[in-house]
Structures are given as C-alpha cells and as structure tokens.
Amino acid sequence: MVEKILKTSLLTLLLNVSLIGAQAGDNTPINFDQELPEATLAAADLVIIDENKDKGYGLALLFFSSEDLAPDDSLRGLAVPPQDTPSPVVEEAPAAPYKSVMFASQIYNQLIQYTIGQDKAMRSLASFIHDHLINLKLCDLSDADPHEPGFADLILEKPNMLMMGPTGCGKTSSLMRLSKILDIPVVVGNATEWTSQGYVGGKWQDIFSKLFFKARAILQAKGIKPTMPALQELVERSIVFIDEIDKLCTGGELDVIDRVQQELLPVIQGTVLELEEGTIDTTNILFVGGGAFPGLIPATNDKTHSKRITPHMLEKYGLLPELAGRLCNIIQFSPLDKEDLKKIILHSKASMLSQYIRKYKLAYNIDLVFEEGAIDYIAEAAAQLKTGARAIHAMLFTLMEEKTFNLQQFLEEFEANEANSDDLAAGISKPRRMCITQAEAMAALQEFVADPSDNKSHHLSMYS
At what angle do helices 407-419 and 389-405 cross, to 10 degrees? Predict the structure, then answer.
C-alpha cells in the first residue's frame, strides 16, 4: 500500500527493525531505534507503509529528494504498528469435569493396598465413588451456568450404596480410607443405637453433629478458617455410613424400627435439616448402609459364585421398599479365609504387625521378627473365629502384651551382654533382635481357641 502520510500519529517506534532509508542514490540497510523528529517527517516526499497484521508490525519507507535533507541516521527507516489490529484475546477452554476427579481405577489401586481380599467389592466401591464425584462436579458447573443448554434435562442420581458382608471384612475400614484419599468427612453411625424421635435413646440426627466436627478438623488442618459457609459446603459433600442397618429389619419393637426407617427416607433422598450446628442440605451427601444380613448372605468363602442380592430380597428381609430402592447399589463383601487373613497380616499397609515392627525399631532400635509359623497360626486362629481382621488385632495385642511389659528387662539384658562382649571393644554393634516364635503364639493365644465345643480347636491341632 502506497500513500502520502501527513499525520505523525501513524509513525511510531518499533525497536530493532531492519529497514531501508532511501535518499538519492542510497539504499543501505540499517537498524533504526529512535523516533524521527517532526521536521524530518514533514520533509518526506513519499512514505511506503507495509502492514503485516499476522506478524504484528508495519514497515514505513521514507523517500527524500537530495535538496530537502542531507542523509543522516535519523532518515534511514521507521517502523509503525499495523493500523486497526487489536491484539487477539485467547480464551482458555474450561477444563473438562473429569480432569479434577480421581478415576475409579486410581481409587481402586489405593483401596486394595489397605483392604485385602475384597478386589471385586473395591472395584464396585471405586466406580460408585467416581460416579458420585463426577455428579458433584457437574452440579457445580450447572450452578455456575444454569442457562447452559446441556444441563437442561440432566438428572444426576446419587449412587447411594449398601455394603453387605460379615463382620471384620473391611466395610468400615475401606470408607475410612476413602476419607483420607478424598480428604472429605466420613462418619459412622450405628443403627442399633437409634430410636425414633420421642423415644429414649440416640437419634439418627446425632450423626450430623459428628460431620460438623470432622469438617471443622479438616478445614483447620488445611489452615482454613472454619466459618459456617465453609463448614456447610464440606459437610454437604461428605459420606455417611449407617452401620448395622440390618438391625433395623429384625428384632425389637417393630413400630420403632419402622419409624426410624421412615425418618431416614427423606434424609437419604435429600432434604434440608435444621440442626443445632446449622442448616444443611443432604441432597449431595452420599449415604452408605452396611450390615452382615445373616441368613441372607450364604456363609461361604467362595468369591466366584456368591449369590447376587437384589432390592426385592432386602424387602423380604425387612427393609422398607423405599429404603431398599434408595440404597440400590449393592456391594457384597466376601468372608475372609486363612490366606486372606495372612495377606492382611503381611501386606496390608494398615497391618497391625507392620505397625509393631516399625514402632519397635523407631522407639527401641529393636528388630522385631515374627516366625512364619507364628503368623500362620494367627491367621488360622482368626479364620476359625470368623470375626475377620478384628480377630487379628485382638490376637496381636494379646501376643505383644507380655513382650511390651518385659521391654525394660530385655533392653537391660541386651546392654549387659553387649558390654561383656568382645564385639564392643572391636567396634562391632550387634542388632537388637526380638523374635516371636510359633510356640509363643500358641501359648499366648490359648484363650482364643480353648473351647473345643465349637469345633475350632481341632483345626489348630496340626500346630501342636
């Protein structure tokens, strides 16, 4: 584009641009880095402007006759910005909802490090939890942009769950682990302690007081002031575990049981509760029921051919049809056999045995060692008791009670022997090693297997 330039506002500085300043017989390219004075601009006979909008700059060539001005560096060239070329505004696309949510496989991989022998149940739990997290994210987006057409007919159902399985199989512990993985409050309420409003006993509303307490602790740990809006937001995204929910189906005063079930229905579905701590909406709180349901679940360790439980079967068991429908995502936990329990002892990150080993090393510099026979005996005894991982904890506490009581004597004897040893003079330090033998395990755990009337003892006779 060629035109006569009369306005100096079009001619501004662009640093370090190589141009050609043309005066009679002079085509030398130079770098120009200073603005031209008005007298120079007025003397120009012709200005050539080349606008390059894609690259974001413009070039101007000034031509002079030899009698107008003598050549100097100020006439060599000029750069101008392109006219009417606003800088493009690049808007970042919003991140997809799944970007900030853990996938089911990621949740599963963390759960199975702590909950052993329940792979199928952990897959189901991880999938339902991921679905719930995605629902929460989509709810946030819908609230932020309610006029978005994509949310017009979207119905998001809460994946409330029912965990079924014998005691000690990992129902409660897996949810407690979820609380740490997701950093959200998870509280446990025992349905056997609840009675209907107006009756003597605990009320199901008490569980929400626990939620506020847990939410406050999480916020304070993060350095966030626990204001009421912050507490409400966290509480309304929490998980409530109603343990022993099968006890609401059988026994006791039927009228009271039905009333408790009826009162839970709107809470699980989603309603606004007025509590002493504040007002909360339970719409986005995930509810999980749990129970052993004896007689409904076959007492077998077969993990591949377990009977599939349906909501209709729960209704026949005594759960209100509406409540069974609201807890329709059923997760079945398997009874734990000896091999499962042995893996829990040796490999679970929450293993009581590994905690003892680490504690003795850190506190006393003692290498605590369990003979394989001792571990095998504990697993077999726990399997016969049919109380799952809870039996392991009780047995290890009993087994280590004597060792803990005699720790002072052990350390004093070790140090005395070390002082009289030639190794000390040679600068050799022996490890402090404490071994738990199979014989010690059998002697300490007699009270757990001493009753021959229940046919538990003969399974352990091979260790005698």
Answer: 50
CA angle 41, 47, 49 (to 5 degrees): 120
pTM above 0.85, yes or no: no
| Percent with pLDDT over 90 in the chain | 45
DSSP 209-245: HHHHHHHHHHHHHTT----HHHHHHHHTT-EEEEETG
* pLDDT tens digits, one per residue of 272-308: 998 888 889 999 999 999 999 988 876 666 666 567 8
**pLDDT greater than 70 at residue 316:** yes
Which residue type is seen at 273?
L
Extended strands (E) in 244-285:
272-274, 279-281
Q: Is 200 helix (H, G, I), strand (E, B) or coil?
A: coil
242: its two tokens: 């109603």
Domains within the chain, CATH numbers bracketed: 2-80 (no CATH), 102-332 (3.40.50.300), 338-463 (1.10.8.60)
pLDDT over threshold 80, residue 191: yes
Number of H helices, E strands in the chain: 17, 16
Q: Are strands 186-190 and 239-243 parallel, antiparallel or unpaired?
A: parallel
pLDDT of residue 100: 80
| List of residues 6+ apart from 115 with CB closer than 8 A | 121, 122, 170, 173, 174, 177, 348
Q: Answer whether 373's CB lies under 8 Å from 438's CB.
A: yes
Angular region, 92: left φ>0, alpha ψ -120 to 50, beta rest? beta
Poorest-pLDDT segment among 88-102, 358-372, 377-391, 395-409: 88-102
What is the rounded distance in angstroms from the CA atom of residue 283 to the CA atom of residue 277?
18
Structure-block tokens of residue 219: 């916020």
Q: What's the CA gap between 333 and 292, in Å, rounded?
A: 9
Instruction: Name the token pair of 163.
Output: 């965990």
